[in-house]
Amino acid sequence: MMNKIIALSFVLLAPSLLWAESAPKVAMQVADLNRIVDVSAPSFSPDGSQLVYVTNRVNGDIDKYQSDIWTVLYQGGKAKQLTHTEERSEWSPQYSPDGKHIAFLASDKDDDSTQLFMMKASGGSVKQLTHIVGGVVAFDWAPDSQRLVLSAWANEPQPNKAGTAPPIVIDRFQFMLDEVGYLTTQRSHLFIVNVKNKKLSTLLAGNQDYWMPVWSPDGQWIAYVTKDPNKTNLDADRHADSDVFIVQANATNGSVVPQRISQATATDVDPYWASPPQWSPDSQQLVWLTSNESKWFFYAPSQLSVANINTKKVRQLARIDRFFYLPKWSPDGQSIYALIEQDRYTSLAKIDASSGSIDYLNKAEHFTMDYDIASQGHIALLNSNPQRPFEIMALDKAMRPLSHHNAWLQERQLASTQAFSFNNQGHEIGGLLMLPLNYQAGQPVPTIFRIHGGPVYQFSHEFMSDWQIYAAKGYAVVGINPRGSSGKGFDFSKAIYADWGNVDASDILAGSDYLIQQGIVDKNRMGIGGWSYGSMLSNYVIASDTRFKAAVSGAGTANIFGTYGHDQYSREYEYELGTPWHNSENYQRVSFPFLQADKITTPTLYQCAEKDFNVPCLGAEQMYQALKSLNIATQLVIYPGQYHSLTVPSYLIDRMQRNLAWYDKYLRH
Predict the structure, then answer these.
(1) What angle do CA 161, 162, 168 make, to 5 degrees?
(2) List of residues 6+ apart from 360 with CB closer than 8 A
(3) Residue 334, helix vs strand vs coil
(4) Arithmetic mean of pLDDT, 485-499
(5) C-alpha distances in angstroms, 113 versus 134, 153, 158, 270?
(6) Cβ–Cβ contacts within 10 Å for residue 295, how many?
(7) I want to staple 511 with a disulfide (CB 3.0 to 4.6 A). Which of 258, 469, 480, 488 is the partner?
(8) What DSSP line would sit under 262-323, residue for residue?
(9) For residue 442, is it left (φ>0), alpha (ψ between -120 and 50) or beta?
(10) What dihedral do alpha carbons 75, 76, 78, 82 form, nearest 10°?
(11) Is residue 267 situated within a structural domain?
(12) Going by C-beta distance under 8 Å and a sequence separation of 6 or more, which residues neighbour residue 381?
């Protein structure tokens, strides 16, 4: 009887299965934003047989993103989920050197602080290793697999017995940081934790920050990053001259004798880059990222520096006018791998550690964001292209997919992306164009110009879900990389230094002219918008020209007089613009969208995040108020409890729906 039931079920289901296979694909919808799985953090097991990585997906029941840890064999096969917590997240996994355990960060169940945890490499029960009030920032295993070094926030102000938070007392130059809050007495210190008894010992403390500790393979040293108080008389908050140090791993706080390895007056391994120094396999050398003098903090491409820890001799390696990211040594110590950014793509390169010659391993129209190298030489990439979100890929002779968390997108009809270039003021400017799904050649269509953040960043050949949704609704989407963008060298990036909204706005306008001439863009139905600096440049453009019929300006500003001292960038303002009282002409120049708001005619939707210390709501509020005073159509949307990047799924859906509605209202005539 059972066999007959199964057979009958197959007969009944077969037609529907055949229909599903031949059913036409549907376009992406706004709700699909909640289906996309973010994949990250690939890390090999010591024997190179498998990788551990992280997925981040929406938990609709609690309206949060939730991350879990997975493993997959390097040779391929079905991935295995190791953590299954329903309301908490786990991230940043690392195998122990003996391969028996995985350490990772996760949110504490009691106070939601970030703590260090450990489990067997096969999964199972989880052991919490730390209970540090301020929370753990980063960690690394000791070669003996018995200890870990970690950086964590210490000296956090504590509430009284009644639970009342103490007054916020500030005496630092930099007194705020997005996602951290006001900076008072807390500092990032280094600790060592024993995995058996969970005993925590202090390695480095005091009135300064220590970042990104990395244990040497021989177990003798720990490398880390800090600002040397003996190198300059300046307050550490007032400069960006971070340096690479090493300290003996068996030292204790009070007996520590740090040794500075990097020597230049420049930024070495800025914590913002999230790229720790890396030890050679023989523990004799370090490689790290270094930039230029502090005033070029965002604009100068990060480069490779290599040092011998015994001689302290530092050499520059493979210096080219492009950004390098995430350097790592090859298993034999003869080469250094790194991601290198080029015009509209980023790929993995293998660099000869002696000669500096560069061999690009996956040079193509895609974006490689992260990678890992196994002890046997296997390579795994975190890679995306315009048709596929980031997934884990093995790099053999070609890229071979290992994770498939977004396979459901095969059911969607996706728009294609094409590169284009044009000339403006003697400069070649590049961009990406996504045509609507129903596009008919020769027919100008309503178009949304998306502006990237940064400002030193670029649009690359990667999957962009918001673009796909706009294209599904009949819009062409344009992403121009104007002067100020990365991918084309230092001079191209610094063209906007202390002069925001000038040549970069000119490039956006010239790009719209070019695409109008190509018969693609309907000149009467153009919209513009972006987030962060993308919002700022949108403000600059609509204050310079009236051609755009709708704008969406998220987490931006236009009155730099008002943001000095109100966001986390006072040091950077002083480097680039000077102080408002001595250099008011600079502040006036870059504040023209607010000071000349009466030139704006574009209906503009302003958005901001309530707890954003990066670009606070003040900027959106002022521009909204200005346009409201001028009777220009406008609206202000504030997302409660959010930092600079929105993380609540329903807010991300809301933002997408509001953007579409705003553009539809003014571009669908």
Answers:
(1) 85
(2) 340, 347, 348, 349
(3) coil
(4) 97
(5) 7, 10, 14, 24
(6) 15
(7) 480
(8) --SSS-BS-GGG----EE-TTSSEEEEEE-S-GGGTTTSPPEEEEEETTT--EEEES--SS-
(9) left
(10) 60
(11) no
(12) 42, 348, 362, 368, 370, 371, 392, 393, 394, 395, 399
pLDDT, position 3: 36
CA 71 to mean position of chain CA atoms: 23
What does the pLDDT average to over 593-618? 97
Least Cα distance to 148 among 94, 189, 108 occurs for 94
CA angle, residues 73, 78, 83, in degrees to nearest 5: 85
Instruction: Provide the strand spans (E) within 323-444.
Output: 324-329, 335-342, 345-352, 358-360, 367-373, 379-385, 388-395, 399-401, 412-413, 417-424, 427-434
Distance of CA 202 to the CA centre of its chain: 30
Nearest 10 degrees: CA dihedral of 105, 107, 108, 111? Answer: 140
Token pair belonging to 382? 């975190």
Beta pairing partners, 314: 307
> Which of 92-101, 228-237, 392-401, 501-510 comes out lowest in average pLDDT?
228-237
Q: CA–CA separation, 157 vs 183, rounded Å?
A: 10
**pTM (predicted TM-score):** 0.93
Tens-digit pLDDT profile for residues 229-260: 887 778 888 888 999 999 999 876 667 789 99
Backbone torsions φ then ψ of 309, nearest 5 degrees: -75, -20
pLDDT for position 150: 97
Residue 500 belongs to some domain of the structure: yes
CA 533 to chain centre: 14
Domain count, the chain: 1
Report if residue 380 sits inside a domain: no
For the chain, first and last CA: distance in Å?
Answer: 63
Residue 554's nearest CA partner among 565, 538, 541 is: 538
Q: Which amino acid is at 29?
A: Q
Please, are residues 264 and 276 in contact by the beta-carbon 8 Å criterion?
no
Specify if 159 maps to a domain.
Answer: no
- Tell me the residue range of the domain where 526 lies: 413-667
**Residues across the chain:** 669
Residue 385 has pLDDT above 70, yes or no: yes
- The CATH number of residue 461's host domain is 3.40.50.1820
Q: What is the tens place of the pLDDT at every residue in 408-455?
A: 999 999 999 999 999 999 999 999 999 999 899 989 999 999 999 999
Structure tokens at 415: 């728009």
- State how far the Cα of 384 lies from the Cα of 441, in Å rounded to an integer: 28
**Host H or E run for residue 589:** helix 584-590
| Cα dist from 262 to 51, 290, 496, whole Å | 32, 9, 29
Tell which residue, 483, 662, 501, has the closest CA to residue 596: 501
